[in-house]
Batch of 2 targets.
Target 1
Amino acid sequence: MNVFIAGGTSGIGYALARHYLEKGDVVGICGRNPGKVIENSFENLKIFQADVCDLHSVNAALQSFLAGDRNLDLFINCAGSYAEDVAGKISYEEAEEMLSTNILGTANCFEAARKAMKGQKKGNIAVIASVSGIMDYENSSLYTKTKRSVIQMADAYRRALKPFRISVTTIAPGYVDTEKLRQLNHNNLDKKPFLTDVQTAVVIISAAIENKEKLVIFPTKMKWMMKSLSILPSFLLNIIMYRKARWMKDDRP
């Protein structure tokens, strides 16, 4: 199987790359900084520099990977950007980065994968969203709104690509214990409920893709907690989520 992973140079993306490589698949990964991959001991791993915010850049990396009439069996978009703005200020640069990466980047990855797979009349596309994206209320964070957009975008592509036998799987995880999450929280994850380790996340994600599931939310406890919160009146949800954000920031320097 030929697998291409955008945002595959670190975190969940690189863990997924290792998973498919260990199965004997050919894997291409791309990111803005390929230097994050310190050691490449896999013969079937191809590394490319690409920015998901630039469609030409993603297409160029993908076409290089597919050189020699190689089919694209699976495209996974793991690229994402996060900056907290529920209980504090957010800079224009942080907002622009989230909007560009999470929304434009998602659209670019879908387009690159769609073009590569349409002629094949088969293929699987997966995108990493967030469990927070299942919630819809007025004062949700910009991050939550961008991830909700990812879920909605995936729904649209799923319907559009179904006649071409191309499946779309949306993954909405809770907190996953990655290096990035630890950096954002000064290595203190005490206030991250239902934390999932990376390898467990890989098992869940890869199974969902293999089974061509539409939407997978994990862990289960986080899924039901968020679904329960989402049925509350908007004004009450605004208060609860704001206080949660303040509580999570209380012990930060």
Note: Residues 2-249 form a domain with the Rossmann fold fold (CATH 3.40.50.720).
Target 2
Amino acid sequence: MIKTFTQDDVIRYVYEETSPEDNLLIEDALMSEPDLMTFFLEALELRALMNRIERQPRRDTVQSILDYSKHHPANPPARIRHS
């Protein structure tokens, strides 16, 4: 029986979520199906681009978290903690 691989299978392969046996079958499918190979190459490129994305929270978001933490009941003011 010949297994047909989908784009979902290719994505799992790109993210190394397939078994060694499936890897061999997917690699064979990539060699014989140009559309699947094109999708694979695009998925590799997108993964590389996504790995370069750096995100940082806005300063006001960080300040809001710090303010909340400072006034949280589990974090009493210093004068109460040392008594």
Note: The CA atoms of residues 70 and 76 lie 8 Å apart.
